[in-house]
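hey m, so remember when u said the tokens were messed up on ur end? i reran from scratch. heres the input so u can diff it against urs
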Amino acid sequence: MIHPRAELHPTVQVGAYAVIGERVKVGPGTVIGHHAVIDGWTEIGARNQIFPGAAIGLEPQDLKYDGAVSLVQIGDDNLIREYVTINRATGAGEATIIGNNNLLMAYVHVGHNCLIEDRVTQATSGTGFCYGHGLVCLLE
């Protein structure tokens, strides 16, 4: 189900039973798998692959959250695998940010206000979580 006010580039592919909310914007060439949920104030760039069951842009899991308008911003060329969760930020105007060319493996959780920079691979074996206000970057 795609909300009529959602902004999807004409080349976006959406799988069966995916839910895309009113304030979502998705860039060219992005593929959204079946049963994915993308909601809230979420902006997704170009050529991302979002696999089945991902939940992106839902309210943060933070008791301080008061309903403020907060964001998820996702860059280009990311692989967001099955059942990944990416929550919005807590405060008004704040963002949870995913950069470019990242691999978030199945079941990774990206909590409120996290920043994942570019070219990061995040797995779930004990380190697959970026808790509130976390930073994950590629160390070269």
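this time it looks ok to me. DSSP finds no helices and 19 strands in the chain. if urs says something different then somethings off w ur setup not the seq
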